[in-house]
Write a structure and sequence with these properties.
Elements: H1 7-16, H2 32-42, E1 54-59, H3 62-89, H4 93-108, E2 114-121, H5 131-139, H6 142-154, E3 157-159, H7 169-176, E4 182-184, E5 188-192
Antiparallel strand pairs: 1-2, 2-4, 2-5, 3-5
Helix pairs in contact: 2-6, 3-4, 3-7
Length: 215
Amino acid sequence: MSTPFDLSQTDELLATTRAVRKRLDLERPVDRTIITDCIDLASQAPTGSNRQGWRWVVVDDPKLRVGLADIYRRGASGYLAKALGAAQARGDAQSQRVFESTLVLSDTMEDVPMLVLPCIEAKGADRQLPAVDWSGLYGSIYPAVWSFQLALRSRGLGSTLTTLHLRHANEAADLLGLPDDLMQVALLPVAYTIGTEFKRAERPPAENIIHWNGW
């Protein structure tokens, strides 16, 4: 049966869109039109009740990047040191590499050309929401975030989804003048990548994680 897509290309895009931290090109500028194009594609993602409540805050001002980087580091420092130590103690080489690269990113966050904060309108959201509402809220923004990252990858740019700045989300909101009913869900550093070849990650085979018709 014929398909409307080149599966070798789409499968490669899906399988090799990695979290990029150490291989972000901090010297090469990123044009705003590329970010706009990628967000335009991301806006095709599905949302709960077709509300389309995503908002994207894109920061390329150097002073604001410094401010966000400081907020991120304060949110990340204790956690990353503890997580790296735990990975080293259990001999988990892959996790060690992840946390070591995250520490590198933390040190250079303000130098990344674009910092993108995907947000969603969430008027009245609080910690008392039932699970179904939280699932619907995040499920209405994360598909768009992943589409954005795929669009970046196809254009030679990379990113990684970070959330540790959310420990101080109110400070980030004040820095950027965000309204009270706008919920930040992540922070994505965006830049061209140093090289464009990325490998598939080691993952368990599908047959090990599928449960047909029940557990």
